[in-house]
Write a structure and sequence with these properties.
By secondary structure, the protein is an alpha/beta fold. The chain is built from five helices and four strands; from the N terminus they run αβαβααβαβ. It has helices at 8-18, 29-37, 50-55, 65-74, 88-97, and strands at residues 23-26, 42-45, 79-82, 101-103. β1 (23-26), α2 and β2 (42-45) form a beta-alpha-beta unit. α2 (29-37) runs parallel beside α4. The N and C termini lie far apart (33 Å). 22% of the residues are buried.
């Protein structure tokens, strides 16, 4: 029997679970654990937080896959990660890592 993942039922259920909750931006596994302990419903794995990126005039890029994997191992709540708009290879990498949501 093959296991089906990413079905519409699963996707809707996860979105409903996150509704009204706090999704914390985190840059390492320790921050992810703190966010989970504080009641976050999910974490967004980032290299740098958006305020720092804007301050430095930078562009948000996909985070290092090893860092994302470390965050996934550290928490039991859903882990989200960003891919640049139109960069489908980044999205495929994130999908292969098993992130719960890909933000573009």
């Amino acid at each position: 029997m093959t296991q089906e993942t990413g079905t519409q039922l699963v996707k809707r259920g996860l979105a409903e679970m996150l509704k009204g909750g706090v999704i914390m931006d985190v840059v390492d596994p320790e921050q992810a654990r703190i966010a989970e302990d504080a009641g976050a419903v999910a974490v967004m794995a980032l290299e740098r937080v958006p305020a720092d990126i804007r301050r430095d005039g930078g562009v948000a890029r996909m985070s290092d896959p090893e860092m994302i994997a470390g965050i996934q191992e550290a928490v039991t709540i859903p882990v989200m990660a960003k891919a640049r708009i139109g960069h489908f290879v980044e999205a495929q990498i994130l999908e292969a890592l098993g992130v719960d949501y890909v933000d573009e």
